[in-house]
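Allow me, if you will, to draw on your knowledge of protein folds for a short while. Thank you for your consideration; the sequence and its tokens are set out here:
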Amino acid sequence: MGVDVELIRIEQQGTSPRRRHESQVAAIGDVDFHLAAVLERVQRQGRTPMLDRIDPYGLLELTSVEMPQFLSELGVLVESEGAGEEKILDAVRRLAERCRDSATLCLRFVGD
């Protein structure tokens, strides 16, 4: 089971959810399950409450307001095991930085 990551642009006029329009800006597929493996190792240890919310079977959206905490928790993941994990963590970090810099973007985690 992998955890894919999507950078989504949200446009919403008013407050009605029916007027919400989403467009995918970028995506990272966790085809080799590297992100899922990292999350499995660090979740439920009390060090990364934001990362603990990512469900390998569900969906989670994080807004630009949540990105500073998310990025700081990614910094905790120094115990990556191998180049594949480092590569996907760097890609997620780049998407999170883009999200942090724009209030119209969100980061979506999609479990299998």
Q: What stands out?
A: Residues 42 and 48 are 7 Å apart (CA to CA). The radius of gyration is 14 Å. Helices lie at 34-42, 49-52, 67-74, 83-100.
